[in-house]
Write a structure and sequence with these properties.
With 319 residues, the protein is of the alpha/beta class. It folds into two domains: 199 residues, 3-Layer(aba) Sandwich (Rossmann fold); 111 residues, UDP-galactose 4-epimerase, domain 1 (Alpha-Beta Complex), CATH 3.90.25. It has ten helices and 15 strands. Strands 3-2-1-4-5-7-12 form a seven-stranded parallel β-sheet, sandwiched between helices. A four-stranded mixed β-sheet has the order 6-15-10-13. Strands 8-11 form a two-stranded parallel ribbon. The longest helix is centred in the first third of the chain and has 22 residues. It is globular.
Length: 319
């Protein structure tokens, strides 16, 4: 038996694939390579280049590889861009998930770990987010992730599919120099690109109600995240009952200035960040409480901020 990893050629997905391998669990990867990289998938791992919208192809792959469960990471993940492309976002993230559920039902696959998002919370009224924090998504992306959670919950009731959803904020770092975050929208790649180009990275606002005046956010290492995806899948396979939703968070967060200082230390580049005006709607501090995930799915912050930054810099694309 094996597990299907959708989006397994992406930054997070490729780390999840490797974590399954380290646990001795076979996987098969489905990815349309719209943002993933074929060379991120190990040569020995079965790979299918396909869209989630191809229900029959998914069904055939699950049957052929005797898939027992799915880790669902594939989707359009850019919250800001989703505002300009809502129909594309819903097609990929909602219609795609429905297609996946149809294929799972046809193939008799009844376990799923869903890669959700802290974007489900929108801008919470409290700076420490728990699983009980009200969900008020503020973008089509966040809405699509919350709808995905609803779909799996309803499929659980109607079809007997066991499931859990993992919500997290900013995923950073690398478990190996071969797997970089190549997103054009994430903070770490933006800082790395600026430094590589000889530009000064920018901080948006330095007058927030935080110890150093810059925003505090949750940053978690991608390898730690991958470990908990595998732990959740293993728990489902063992018949353990999991919570419907878990936050994977640090509980305290890091400031933007701390990140800049860590990049200066990792790179040896002495720079003073440019201070730009605040961006509208940026709260002072938002971090997630990972207590429940630590209890049930081996969630730990095993990497320091400096290790996150150094591993991201070492994995930066070259040439």
């Amino acid at each position: 038996m094996s597990w299907l990893v959708t989006g397994g050629a992406g930054y997070i997905g490729s780390h999840v694939v490797r974590a399954f391998g380290e646990a001795g669990i076979d996987v098969v990867v489905v990815d349309d390579l719209s943002s993933g990289h074929r060379d991120y998938v190990p040569a020995h791992v079965p790979f299918l280049e396909a869209s989630l919208l191809e229900t029959d192809v998914l069904t055939e792959a699950m049957t052929e590889h005797r898939v027992a469960g799915v880790v669902h990471l594939a989707g359009f993940k850019y919250a800001g861009v989703s505002v300009q492309r809502p129909l594309h976002t819903y097609t990929q993230n909602v219609t795609g998930t429905i297609s996946l559920l149809k294929a799972m039902s046809s193939a008799g696959v009844d376990q799923v770990v869903f890669s959700s998002s802290a974007a489900c919370y929108g801008t919470p009224e409290t700076d420490l987010v728990t699983e009980q924090t009200p969900t008020r998504p503020e973008s089509p992306y966040g809405e699509s992730k919350l709808i995905g959670e609803w779909l799996f919950a309803n499929a659980g009731r109607a079809l007997g599919i066991t499931h859990t959803s993992l919500r997290y904020f900013n995923v950073v770092g690398s478990g190996t120099p071969q797997l970089a975050d190549t997103s054009p929208h994430n903070l770490f790649p933006l800082v790395i690109k600026a430094l590589e180009d000889g530009r000064t990275p920018r901080i948006y606002g330095a007058d927030y109600a935080t110890p150093d005046g810059t925003c505090v956010r949750d940053y978690v290492h991608v390898s730690d995240l991958a470990t908990s995806h595998v732990a959740a899948a293993t728990a489902l396979a063992q018949g353990r009952t999991l919570e419907p939703v878990y936050n994977l968070g640090s509980g305290d967060g890091s400031s933007v200035r701390e990140i800049m200082d860590a990049f200066a230390a990792a790179t040896g580049i002495d720079f003073t960040p440019e201070i730009a005006p605040r961006r509208a709607g940026d709260p002072d501090r938002i971090v997630a409480d990972g207590t429940l995930a630590a209890r049930d799915i081996d969630w730990q912050m095993r990497h320091t901020l400096q290790e996150m930054v150094t591993s991201a810099w070492d994995a930066r694309p070259r040439g």
